[in-house]
Write a structure and sequence with these properties.
The chain has 426 residues and is of the alpha/beta class. The protein has 20 helices and nine strands. The protein has a seven-stranded mixed sheet with strand order 7-6-1-2-5-8-9, with helices on both faces. Strands 3-4 form a two-stranded antiparallel sheet. Helix 13 packs across helix 16. The protein is globular and about 55 Å long. It starts with a strand and ends with a strand.
Length: 426
């Protein structure tokens, strides 16, 4: 049996995702496809637009055979940490292949950049640039482009291509996946699928191209006040989302960053009042902590974006600030992350979100291959997880309760009790 793994957010699941699944299965000859999917929070520092059980259902409905969760501690982390958790989890489960998208499907060049990142010289250079005041993304870019890597950097065309690679979030994730496969000496074989639709950051729909998840969320955000609840029946969406998922998405409400804004404010004020040091949280520097303290008392609009922009400076990108804000809100501390990273497999564990009945053979195989127990009942987690893994699990439960409270406040419905969440079975 050949098993293909995909690390994804499906925020939301769209036609480009379905294309990737079909193409990767074709190339690999895989019998089954599993997804390692972000839970209720995503990597750019935001809540998922749809709750994780809904997104699990859409994934299973459109080509995925089983879905496992990336907990919030890592689903909202930097590309490096996000990739590290995902690769470790796929390795634990014993998959044969991983497929990921990239703007540049030149495997050799992506592999070259991943090798540069593994160099001790690069690591030292990144630390030097961070110490000088650059954020991690800029420090990584500067370290790679420093020179001193022989023919790779001296070749003018390759320099240009490497610069292009480092400008795309999908390419950066691709490089991090390749790097982490090597770091743990995994036997997982990578299959890179070149993007055939709109770019990752493209906010508008483009004719005759797969729309990006960003563009779809943007259209959803514009339509959030619409009286038409069945928004996905709109002509704009009908060719962007697999038809079999339209009814699923029309039956639930969307959540946006704006919905969290005043919860963020109350949470931060409480932490500051009780003497919490904001710089103890992941991705929060002393400078950013001070900027937040200066601005948190007076939020001048109901826009989360406006709040982020009030904190923005040359040292902090929009995504870095947003990610830091959700780390504070969700209680993700640097000290705990350090402990987690010292654990074998960075304390990754397989929590099953859903599967297809037709994939019963896959689950049996995964249970045989997996180095850790596959958790399908939340009540069993306490007896199956290590002390560190249990901390991640319990933090994720808290984060789910918070997401559900925001959903209830907005729609008057509570999706589920995280402790009693049922596996999605199709």
């Amino acid at each position: 049996m050949k098993i293909l793994g995909i690390i994804a957010e499906y925020n939301p699941f769209h036609m480009g995702h379905r294309y990737q699944i079909r193409r990767a299965k074709e190339v690999s000859g895989a019998d089954y496809v599993i997804a390692i999917m972000s839970g209720n929070y995503v990597q750019r520092g935001a809540p998922a637009v749809f709750e994780k059980s809904v997104r699990t259902r859409t994934a299973l409905n459109a080509g995925i055979d089983a879905v496992f969760e990336i907990p919030s501690f890592f689903s909202g982390a930097s590309a490096s940490d996000f990739a590290q958790f995902g690769i470790n989890l796929l390795d634990i489960l014993g998959v044969d292949y991983i497929s990921f998208g990239a703007e540049n499907d030149n495997h050799k060049l992506l592999d070259t950049v991943s090798n540069i990142l593994l160099e001790k010289q690069t690591e030292l250079s990144i630390k030097k640039y961070i110490k000088s005041g650059l954020n991690y993304a800029k420090a990584r870019h500067s370290a790679i482009m420093d020179g001193g890597f022989g023919d790779v950097i001296q070749d003018g065309q390759k320099v240009f291509q490497i610069k292009e690679i480092l400008l795309s979030p999908n390419n950066i994730l691709a490089v991090e996946y390749l790097k982490n496969i090597k770091l743990i000496n995994s036997n997982i074989k990578p299959i890179i699928i070149g993007r055939s639709g709109s770019g990752y950051h493209k906010k508008d729909m483009e004719k005759d191209k797969f729309a990006s998840a960003t563009a779809i969320r943007n259209e959803l955000f514009k339509a959030r006040e619409s009286s038409n609840y069945n928004i996905f029946c709109n002509d704009k969406f009908v060719n962007l989302i697999p038809k079999e998922n339209i009814d699923i998405l029309n039956s639930t409400g969307a959540i946006f960053e704006d919905d969290f804004l005043f919860t963020v404010q109350r949470n931060f004020l409480d932490k500051i009042y009780t003497g919490e040091e904001l710089n103890s949280y992941c991705d929060v520097s002393n400078e950013l902590a001070n900027t937040i303290k200066q601005n948190i008392n007076e939020i001048k609009s109901k826009s989360f974006e406006d709040f982020i922009l009030s904190l923005k400076s040359k040292n902090f990108t929009y995504t870095r600030i947003s990610r830091a804000i959700f780390h504070i809100l969700l209680n993700h501390k640097k000290k705990e992350l350090k402990e987690i990273k010292m654990e074998s497999d960075i304390a990754a564990y397989p929590i099953l979100l859903g599967f297809k009945k037709s994939a019963a053979g896959l689950l049996s195989e995964l249970k045989l291959r997996s180095r850790k127990p596959v958790i399908s009942k939340m009540s069993s987690a306490k007896n199956l997880l290590s002390e560190i893994s249990l901390k991640i699990f319990e933090n994720n439960i808290y984060c789910d309760f918070l997401y559900n409270s925001i959903y209830f406040e907005k729609y008057g419905e509570n999706p589920y009790n995280p402790y009693r969440r049922r596996i999605v079975i199709l």
